[in-house]
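help with these tokens:
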Amino acid sequence: MSPLPTTTPTPPLQVVTAAFPKGGGALPGLGQTLSPSGMSGAAQLSIALPLPPVRLAPALALTYHSQQGNGPFGLGVALTLPTLARQTSRGTPSYADGRDVFVFEGDELVPDAAGPTEVDNERLTRYHMRHEGRFDYLELHQPLTPADAPAPAWWRVWRADGRCEVFGRCAAARTAVPGNPAQVLEWHLEETVSPHGEHVYYSYAP
């Protein structure tokens, strides 16, 4: 009788479970969550930008709002910088500085009862917030130029704590009607000066 063949048992299949590295190699989250915005139910999120700790450091943050349109940082994303603008919620502005309503930090501006004055070849009109709270005041500077060659206006804001801010003095810091730079819709923050002479400059790419 021939001998029976011998067999070698097959080892069980080893399944290797993938494991992610732990410790410093993991990327932590930002620690921020979406939150509802008032009664509209829109989602919003704010991420503060890290800046060097100096005395006049601007408080900058990227904010997301689900009901906002496209912007330079993406859909619904904007940078928290103050802007002066003509009011558009009640119709198309006339781009006549004496007739349009201006808006700043969510509030309408009211011209001073004293009326405009002329200083250094400019017409200067002082404005206040309609709902006064911080006691800031604003100055609209309109260059006195011929009617057939109007020059864009710009703004200076005096804060209650002594800071001075300049809006839209250069063309890159203004949003104007295409082909008509004198018809300005928005004036963006261009410079901040503290009572101690510290400066912060903002530049905008065309």
About this structure: The chain has no helices and 17 strands.
